[in-house]
Hints:
Layout: H1 22-29, E1 44-48, H2 49-66, E2 69-70, H3 80-88, E3 94-96, H4 99-107, E4 112-118, H5 124-135, E5 137-142, H6 145-154, E6 163-167, H7 182-192, E7 195-200, H8 210-233, E8 240-243, E9 259-260, H9 270-275, E10 285-293, E11 299-302, H10 306-309, E12 321-322, E13 330-334, E14 339-342, E15 355-360, H11 363-367, E16 372-377, E17 380-386
Parallel strand pairs: 1-16, 2-9, 3-4, 4-5, 5-6, 6-7, 7-8, 8-9
Antiparallel strand pairs: 1-10, 10-11, 10-15, 11-14, 12-15, 13-14, 16-17
Helix pairs in contact: 4-5, 5-6, 6-7
Bound molecules: pyridoxal-5'-phosphate (PLP).
Amino acid sequence: MTGSAAGTGSIAGSDSAATVDTATCGRLRRLAVPRFPAGLATPCLYVDLDVLDRNIAAMQATMDARGIALRPHVKTHKSVAIARRQLAAGAAGVTVGTLGEAEVMADAGITDLFVAYPVWAAGPKAKRLAALHARAQVIVGIDSAAGARGLAAAVARSATSLRVAVEIDSGQHRTGVTFDAAAGVAVAARDAGLEVIGVFTHGGHGYASGADRSTAASDEVRLLGEAAARLGAAGFTVSLISAGSSPTAVLSAVAPVNEERPGTYVFWDRQMVGLGAGEPDAVALVVLSTVVSAAVPGQVVLDAGAKTLTKDRPAWLDGFGALPAYPSATVSRVYDYHAVVWIPPGTPAPALGEVVAVVPNHVCPVVNQFDELVVGRAGVALERWPVDARGRSD
Ligand SMILES: Cc1ncc(COP(=O)(O)O)c(C=O)c1O
């Protein structure tokens, strides 16, 4: 981002430019410069354990103070070690997005699992769901009568009924039914033999801009409340009213919501700091990358790229990553194994061969590109943790 008279900014010469507002620019320029170990093969993912534990503790403390259960989404870290840290801090269980993530967690003994996704239980997935249900305490999302019937058929031979929650569309318009259609789906699920325990939503429309976060959070609370009331009126006992996204988690953690499912908060990322959801000193994971070329004036090239940083970029943010040690520089273009960093004229640039920390736009898909996380404290590497559920999008 270049500062302009109006205080907004965008990257010159970029194929990913957006005009970024003053407040967002200011927050991103204040990203804390991480300390990291020397001598690691790049690119790699480095996690600062102190920052990680601070993020886990802060979200847990907020939810504890409000009497709301925290069920973190593990799709961000896909790591058994980190899920265990979240549970040790007081999480009520974990959220997963796929049966594959659920199986990895269950294999590690983490068995309180909410598959917050409308699982279509056909073919091999039906068998896998039945096997998971037999060895774990599973809740599954539904947003259609047909989907519910498929789940019921999959677990028909089980000794216990499968618990489900009806997904409500609170404004993202991705999945979920309107609040006034929730009871119809719930009745179909009950008629099929499932145990309907409540409602859930993901206020993903809070990612659109900082201003949209609070609107999305109040949409989550209001529409979950309406849906829960409809289920109550239809004779259901509603024990679960679950909201969840990192931009809205704190803002929507009020009654009647009784559970939150943020995932990204564990690491935060450039997008979350830009939105004002995460603090500039709370980013726990960076991509370490080496400057491999400075041949073209006005830029350097890192050994990261689309296969590391991904091409994920919200419309309101320019570029594909930030270098906290070089706050004027931005990753302006990515190719598979090249990340082109635009250096505004007259500003410092990293030297050829220098290793830099990059804060990715969206940390979740970045983690899924790597087999392991290098974990350390105060710039000293301590351990390597596997990304256990890497690639388990199944
Ligand atoms: C259903 C559901 N719940 C929770 C989350 C966690 O949200 P976030 O990634 O903002 O932490 C997601 C993220 O995609 C989601 O889809």
